[in-house]
């Protein structure tokens, strides 16, 4: 769904967001100290270094004795003593400067550091052996001592890690026993996090995986016990209270299968998110956080293991994008996002900033939303940046000042009125924001030489039947028409997609609020279906679509299969832990369709560049429409009646000059 720049909603005050974020950061720092193999040790680093020195001393003595067939009488004792002193000094110096305080003890980073220490040690001892007479150490001992000592250091760390994990498993028997689904990368990460986190309340007891090649695999002492279909029996036999799905790329079918098997086992189900999701600061569309009213979203980091969300059941996993191609048009460019505080606009900002634009200018008419998006993008939220612009695209002169002052190279236009029913009741608002403001923005961008313009559209523009659909169809045609005027090197395109899962004002937030209040779920019809995609997937595909889109084209994102709204609502309630909800049917409202479609009946499904992006040609708008848009805006400003429903419908399909005369005086409400 689209996100309106004009939309307002109940938002948590900035100070609440900051305090929650600070608390989350504090918890993350505390867990950061608990995570990793550094917690294997409870001794200071100098003590651990002395243990390494002791290993080096033992190795040197044993190698020297073996070189002289265990005859201590013929060993150069003075030279051996000097060698031990030299080796200890070289180790302490190099480890202190290159490894200590730079790498966690027992990690892969430290292994690399130890290799460097061993190279310095071998070089210094070999040089000393060659340059002294008689030789301080036999050259063979000087060369082999460092590699042997390094092996000893690694064995020490491996034994310490395994001891720590074994002790963690023994101590965790009073906690919650977890059966892990997936013995691949995700399974290894999940087990490592459970075993290495001293504060974890979960401890693994077994793995299941359908890959026959992993039948006898063991990870940190946790072995594969069987296939996924054996999950209920294994959970009962191992006493598992939690099933942890550790397959970040799991298909919706696999997720549903694991849910069903977990229910049979009577266990709780948790999910290991993908790495991108863990790093994302976008709020989830699932359970509301404690103390936060249902439906209000706050940008906080996701937890390591979380409950199953509708994203898992409806999403299609990771989207393949061409990051280099996206970076080629964003890096070192000035990028403007309108409606930056909305669900799509804010996620676009978070995605765009990763491609290192020269500047990212964010504009919205809601100051609270601007504060939230700045906080999620740069973590500051000070509201003092020149790249944060508070204003309404409908205000005369605002657009020309915005584009003239910031001179963007790329514009993502996400500001819109998006709610179908309100757009139907207040057609003038939809016209002024979706049509008139977009027309002004396009004209100014062409005049100022903006090279790339991406208009965010909606599936309701395909064979439209509502004010919202007609208005967005007009913006698609306007974008194509202005793209022709912008010149051959410019790219002005529209990207069309459907409902964004869990966005503000979407069906899920409505269901969440109704469930939390104990009210029935209001659903239009038992047969109504809609397309859904996650906000992360939508934003990535928008950026990808802009790579190959050309002026005059509309790009339609593949939304997968449509989902029945009632089934979606009941599944959502079950995932939240609510009993089967009562459903009240409200009936189809004016302008609503029972089923949406992403492509119009006359639009071919042509995907020349990306499997999830369809390219269609957009018909250009007659020249007199721009004049008529200004006329209608003036008439509305004077309070005169305009039949906007009829005007929008005619203009959406206009192939000839448009002529609709104003009628009697009215408030401007259609």
Automatic annotation (TrEMBL):
Annotated segments matching region Disordered: 1-29
Top-level taxon of the source organism: Bacteria
Annotated keywords: Membrane, Transmembrane, Transmembrane helix
Segments crossing the lipid bilayer: 47-68, 80-99, 111-131, 137-160
InterPro entries registered for this protein in UniProt: NAD(P)-bd_dom_sf, Polysac_CapD-like, Polysaccharide_Synthase-Rel
Residue span, Polysaccharide biosynthesis protein CapD-like domain: 335-609
One Pfam short name: Polysacc_synt_2
Family: Belongs to the polysaccharide synthase family.
Protein name: Nucleoside-diphosphate sugar epimerase/dehydratase
Origin species: Pedococcus aerophilus
């Amino acid at each position: 769904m689209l996100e309106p720049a004009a939309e307002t909603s109940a938002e948590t005050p900035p100070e609440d967001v900051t305090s929650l974020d600070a608390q989350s950061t504090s918890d993350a720092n505390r867990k950061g100290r608990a995570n990793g193999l550094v917690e294997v040790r409870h001794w200071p680093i100098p003590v651990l270094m002395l243990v390494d020195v002791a290993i080096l001393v033992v190795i040197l003595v044993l190698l020297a004795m073996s070189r002289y067939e265990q005859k201590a009488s013929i060993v150069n004792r003075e030279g051996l003593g000097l060698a031990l002193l030299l080796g200890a000094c070289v180790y302490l110096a190099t480890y202190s400067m290159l490894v200590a305080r730079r790498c966690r003890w027992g990690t892969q980073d430290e292994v690399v550091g130890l290799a460097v220490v061993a190279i310095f040690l071998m070089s210094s001892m070999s040089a000393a052996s060659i340059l002294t007479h008689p030789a301080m150490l036999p050259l063979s001992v000087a060369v082999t001592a460092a590699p042997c000592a390094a092996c000893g250091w690694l064995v020490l760390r491996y034994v310490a890690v395994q001891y720590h994990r074994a002790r963690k498993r023994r101590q965790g028997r009073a906690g919650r026993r977890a059966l892990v689904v997936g013995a691949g990368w995700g399974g290894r990460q999940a087990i490592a996090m459970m075993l290495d986190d001293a504060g974890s309340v979960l401890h693994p007891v077994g793995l299941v995986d359908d890959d026959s090649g992993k039948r006898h695999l063991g990870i940190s002492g946790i072995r594969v016990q069987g296939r996924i279909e054996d999950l209920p029996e294994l959970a009962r036999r191992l006493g598992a209270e939690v099933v942890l799905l550790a397959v970040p790329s799991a298909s919706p079918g696999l997720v549903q299968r694991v849910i069903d098997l977990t229910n049979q086992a009577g266990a709780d189900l948790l999910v290991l998110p993908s790495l991108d999701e863990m790093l994302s600061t976008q709020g989830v569309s699932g359970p509301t956080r404690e103390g936060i009213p249902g439906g209000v979203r706050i940008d906080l980091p996701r937890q390591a293991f979380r409950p199953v969300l509708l994203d898992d059941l409806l999403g299609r996993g990771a989207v393949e994008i061409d990051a280099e191609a996206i970076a080629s048009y964003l890096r070192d460019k000035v990028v403007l996002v309108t409606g930056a505080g909305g669900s799509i606009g804010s996620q676009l900002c978070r995605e765009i900033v990763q491609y290192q634009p020269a500047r990212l200018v964010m504009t919205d008419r809601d100051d609270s939303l601007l504060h939230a998006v700045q906080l999620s993008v740069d973590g500051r939220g000070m509201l003092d940046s020149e790249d944060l612009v508070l204003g309404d695209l409908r205000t005369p002169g605002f657009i020309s000042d915005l584009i003239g002052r910031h001179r963007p190279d790329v514009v993502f236009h996400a500001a819109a009125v998006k709610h179908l029913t309100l757009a139907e009741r207040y057609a003038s608002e939809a016209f002024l924001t979706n049509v008139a403001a977009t027309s002004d923005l396009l004209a100014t961008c062409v005049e100022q030489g903006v090279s790339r313009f991406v208009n965010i559209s909606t599936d309701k523009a395909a064979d439209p039947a509502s004010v919202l659909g007609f208005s967005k169809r007009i913006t698609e045609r306007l974008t194509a028409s202005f793209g022709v005027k912008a010149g051959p090197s410019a790219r002005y395109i529209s990207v069309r997609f459907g409902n964004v899962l869990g966005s503000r004002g979407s069906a899920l937030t409505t269901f969440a609020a109704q469930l939390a209040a104990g009210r029935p779920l209001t659903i239009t019809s038992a047969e109504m279906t809609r397309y859904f995609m996650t906000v992360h997937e939508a934003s990535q595909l928008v950026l990808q679509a802009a790579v190959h889109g050309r002026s005059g084209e509309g790009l339609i994102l593949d939304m997968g299969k449509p989902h029945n709204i009632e089934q979606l609502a009941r599944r959502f309630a079950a995932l939240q832990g609510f009993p089967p909800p009562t459903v009240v049917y409200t009936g189809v409202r004016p302008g609503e369709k029972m089923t949406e479609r992403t492509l119009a009946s006359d639009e071919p499904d042509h995907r020349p560049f990306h499997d999830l992006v369809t390219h269609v040609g957009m018909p250009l708008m007659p020249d007199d429409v721009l004049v008529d848009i200004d006329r209608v805006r003036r008439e509305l400003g004077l309070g005169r009646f305009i039949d906007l429903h009829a005007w929008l419908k005619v203009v959406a399909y206009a192939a000839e000059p448009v002529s609709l005369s104003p009628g009697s005086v009215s408030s401007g409400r259609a």
